[in-house]
Amino acid sequence: MKSRIITSSVLLTISWLLIGSACSTSSAIRTGTQQYEATNPLQVKLLTSYPLHYETLGLVEASAPKGYLRKAEHASQAALTALKKQAALMGAEAIVIKDYSSSSTPDFSVGGGSDFGVLFSSDKKHVTGEAIRFTQLETASLR
After folding, report:
1. Which SS3 state, helix, strand or coil, does residue 120 take?
2. For residues 41-57, average pLDDT
3. What is the DSSP letter of 61?
4. Which CATH superfamily does the domain covering 24-106+119-142 fall into?
5. pTM for the whole thing?
6. How far apart are CA 74 and CA 85, in angstroms?
7. In angstroms, rounded to a whole number, what is the distance separating the alpha carbons of residues 94 and 54?
8. Which of 10, 25, 61, 125 has most Cβ atoms within 10 angstroms of its Cβ?
């Protein structure tokens, strides 16, 4: 009976982890005063340094779990995609990446004691940046 409960708990936990592992989270804080129409997230550029002429729209952040069946690159891509979507909603044309990091956190534990215990942990990719728009001078020089 005890092994049946543990087996059921393990299967339920694995199902929950596989379903929940695909979610990314993101948020944005508008710091600029100018309002712009949303841009296409696919056209938002990722930069590692500031251009000469730009306007700051706000700060954006996103994170995505690696999950248990995905590669770390998938989490990175999901986090960057979520970051671009947030910036695009503000009307950004680019994001200057401020921080890119990974973390590992325990998710769930089944059983315990000396009988049976399994600890599940997941890796997350975090990325933060500054959403910007190019000024006319910068836009012309990028073409």
Report:
1. strand
2. 96
3. E
4. Hypothetical protein apc22750. Chain B (3.30.110.70)
5. 0.68
6. 16
7. 10
8. 125
